[in-house]
Amino acid sequence: MKQPVRIAVTGAAGNISYALLFKIAAGEMLGSDQPVILQLVEIPQAMDRLHGVTMELEDCAFPLLHGVTLHDNPDSGFQGAHYAILLGARPRSRGMERADLLEANAAIFSAQGRALNKVANPDVKALVVGNPANTNCLILSRNAPDLSPSQFCAMTRLDHDRARGLLSTQIEVSLADIDNIIIWGNHSSTMYPDLHHATIAGDQPVISMINDQWYKEEFIPRIQKRGSEIIEARGQSSAASAAQAALAHMRDWALGTDGKIVSMGVISDGSYGVAKGICYSFPCVCDFGAYQIVQGLDINEYGQEKMKVTEAELLEEKAAVEHLLPTE
After folding, report:
1. In 3-state terms, what secondary structure has residue 286?
2. pLDDT computed for residue 93 by the predictor
3. Mean pLDDT in order along the chain per 10 residues (328 residues)
4. Could you give the CA distance from residue 161 to residue 167 in angstroms, rounded to a whole number?
5. Cα angle at 324 between 305 and 71, to 5 degrees?
6. What backbone phi and psi angles, to 5 degrees, belong to 172?
7. CA-to-CA distance for 149 and 79, rounded, in angstroms?
């Protein structure tokens, strides 16, 4: 049997974590032959609740689960971690301005970045789920100077999968036949869900099968605001689908996408003219435990305009926390 790998999860007593941890322990993230040790991190006030989650994990008797440890700080929780899934973040409270939210999260993710840099496995892969995910990811990366920016991602896989699901329902095609959907930019209402490269069964262009008005006036806004739509209908945020997206993101990052495009928020290297140094969602393929941004896609004028809007938002977010970031 393989040696266990260590997976750190923050916000571990929350709803997304509760939908995620049992899947990881069952082998759905890294495969049915990979033992895992879960290192669960929470704020001190939530440790009793986290202990209850741990008891349930023990009661499931997962053969692949070789240990669970509980931590109330990232310095111990990230010790030796091969993977880090950062679910916890400061939520926006009543009367809080967006700049205040960014600054509050900067303190959290600065500390977590320093901890990863200090105690995690040198090859750690870190996924930020807690919102605002893209800029939180940037803060995390900038505070881990000994680690490569390529070791940090923000999750736009949920938006990617939402787009696939809604498209599948609209055109009555199996999800398995839909490829090459792309989410560009920020995990926010400015993201650009791009169907111009999407195909059905490998060769039929999706864009030829849909109405342009539906695409621009219904599909794009609905994907951009899907989280709010779920809260309105359910009274709670989307926990189960977020957990599934985090699992899929980490599985593909670790095990590969077999040439298929997935959407990942990564630190921009300037591809497609996007400003360097912001965390921006690009089309990526993964192999051998690494991602690569897919190059050479033609972007029409409409797409370029949409990409610039979401880029501008990310540049504004970066500017709002720039005074809190270590110099590059």
Report:
1. strand
2. 66
3. 95 97 98 98 97 98 98 98 95 73 91 98 98 96 98 98 97 95 97 97 93 97 93 89 98 97 98 98 98 98 98 96 85
4. 10
5. 105
6. 55, 55
7. 19
Q: Which residues are CB-neighbours of 138 under 8 A, at least 6 positions away?
A: 267, 277, 278, 279, 318, 325
Instruction: Copy the structure tokens of residue 79.
Output: 């010790």
Of 179, 169, 91, residue with least CA distance to 133: 91
Please identify every residue annotated as catalytic: 187
Q: Which of 101, 168, 167 is nearest to 133 (CA)?
A: 101
Distance from C-alpha of 24 to C-alpha of 36, rounded to nearest angstrom? 8
- Residues 6+ positions from 230 with CB-CB distance below 8 Å: 237, 238, 241
| Of 17, 22, 18, the residue nearest 61 (C-alpha) | 22
State the pTM of this model: 0.96
Tokens matching residue 86: 């950062």
CA distance 305 to 165: 25
Residue with tokens 């990310």: 314
* CATH 3.90.110.10 at 157-318, yes or no: yes
DSSP assigned state of 300: -
Which option is the CATH number for 5-154: 3.40.630.30, 3.30.565.10, 3.40.50.11290, 3.40.50.720?
3.40.50.720
